[in-house]
Specification:
The chain is α+β, with helices and mostly antiparallel strands. It has 15 helices and 16 strands. The radius of gyration is 28 Å and the shape is elongated. The two termini are 42 Å apart. It binds adenosine-5'-triphosphate and magnesium ion.
Length: 426
């Protein structure tokens, strides 16, 4: 029971309890394995950055910067922000440490992000993203590599029904032409737009394509199509990417209405979605952001990447029944006498040296009670150490998952005996 005055966690920020952790670790292990098979290296950046970093990268007219950032002044009066995403931080770190000087970088990260959104299933105020950033290649080869990597990850996690949609936003010039045409069309139907979209019509009409308001989406169905405006060069890049995806059997759909909620994207953009999670259907999204490094004070470096929401990914694995079970100890050491603690701990350490996962009973208790704990732990075997065992220099070994009888084993033969038992169990 939580008492009336007890302190609760912040709304939209979740504790991950021990029972949740195996699923997280299994997904994280799979991620580590997949990225390492593509030569990506991990980067860890601070969770707090200067507010300006996000204003300059994500963009002033975006949902994130307009209303979702946790921003505060520190004691020096500097405006700081809990990171809402990590691409800007990766680029900042890359510039700051000279990682982009005449070299390319394949980077990945995993960690908590913070956005002040309305909490609901699949949408939290602290959530976790895994992401990759390929800095230094203009694509479309590396774009395809990134999409291969994502697809492989879903496969390895046993997830099948994830749909990949791709689009290209084209060059700045093409986007300018499209923006004018789109503005003109939307202005003609301004009375039917939602308030946010009306405001954005002045500031950044492309942002409206990202609107989640159903009526606005209906109006957009008749809007000009971005693909009709893009240049030959972008078209051919987009074609090559599609060819590379087909060659590897990566299924995709072209969706010319796909734009991303952040300003820094250029060229190819993509999103993986599922229909199994209700409204929060986006698992992973990304694209090319060739202008960002320069925008943040570096030289011009082409770049592409994606970010993937771990809470949604883990919920999907749970729905698919792929959840990893908790890992039980191998051995439970019951210590049935005060005088036997040192000896029980001695055995435990020796067994850990030999590679076993061992839980030694703490807090005393009678043999019966300790055996109940041993059974509940999921361990395969219990050792019993008490005064009798001390006297005879033996331990009692009790198999917990078979009907085999409890036996008394001499000190020097314990490891060999256990090895035999565990080999048989496998
Ligand atoms: P959405 O359209 O769902 O708001 P987004 O476009 O804001 O997503 P991105 O900024 O591209 O999302 O982040 C990439 C991924 O991170 C999303 O596809 C999603 O899986 C996850 N994500 C984003 N915001 C949240 C959140 N508040 N809670 C949980 N996961 C999130
Ligand atoms: Mg969002």
């Amino acid at each position: 029971m939580v008492g009336g005055n007890s302190i609760r966690s912040i709304r939209g920020m979740n504790d991950l309890l021990p029972a949740d952790i195996p699923a997280w670790q299994a997904v994280e292990d799979t991620i580590r394995s997949v990225v390492s098979h593509y030569g990506y290296q991990e980067i860890r950046t601070p969770v707090i950055e200067q507010t300006e970093l996000f204003q300059r990268s994500i963009g002033e007219g975006t949902d994130i910067v307009e209303k979702e950032m946790y921003t505060f002044n520190d004691n020096n009066g500097d405006s700081l922000t809990l990171r809402p995403e990590a691409t800007a931080s990766c680029v900042r770190a890359g510039i700051e440490h000279g990682l982009l000087h005449n070299q390319s970088q394949r980077l990945w990260y995993l960690g908590p992000m913070f956005r002040h959104e309305r909490p609901q299933k699949g949408r939290y105020r602290q959530f976790h993203q895994f992401g990759i950033e390929a800095l230094g290649w203009p694509g479309p080869d590396v774009d395809a590599e990134i999409l291969y990597l994502g697809s492989r990850l879903w496969r390895q996690l046993g997830l099948n029904d994830i749909v990949l949609e791709i689009n290209t936003l084209g060059s700045a010039q093409a986007r300018g032409r499209f923006r004018s045409a789109l503005s003109e069309y939307l202005a003609s139907r301004i009375d039917e737009l939602d308030t946010d979209s009306r405001r954005r019509l002045q500031q950044n009409p492309l942002r409206i394509l990202d609107s989640k308001v159903a009526r606005t989406q209906e109006i957009l169905a008749d809007a000009p199509d971005l693909l009709d405006f893009i240049d030959d060069e972008d078209c051919s890049s987009f074609e090559i990417l599609q060819g590379l995806l087909r060659a590897a059997g990566v299924e995709f759909q072209v969706n010319s209405r796909l734009v991303r909620g952040l300003d820094y994207y250029t060229g190819i953009v993509f999103e993986w979605t599922t229909d199994q999670l209700g409204a929060q259907n986006a698992i992973c999204a990304g694209g090319r952001y060739d202008g960002l490094v320069e925008q943040l004070g570096g030289r011009s470096v082409p770049a592409a990447g994606f970010a993937c929401g771990l809470e949604r990914l883990i919920e999907l694995t749970r729905l698919g029944g792929h959840l990893a079970p908790p890992v039980p100890p191998d051995i439970w050491v019951a210590i049935v006498d005060q005088a036997a603690i040192a000896s029980g701990f001695g055995y435990s350490e020796k067994l850990r040296d030999a590679g076993y996962k061992v839980v030694a009973n703490c807090g005393g208790g009678g043999l019966k009670k300790q055996m109940r704990r041993a059974d509940g732990s999921g361990a395969l075997v219990a050792l019993v150490v008490g005064t009798e065992e001390l006297r005879t220099q033996c331990v009692s070994v009790k198999p917990l998952r078979t009907n085999a009888p409890q036996v008394s084993v001499a000190d020097g033969e314990l490891l060999a005996h256990l090895k035999q038992h565990f080999d048989m169990e496998q």
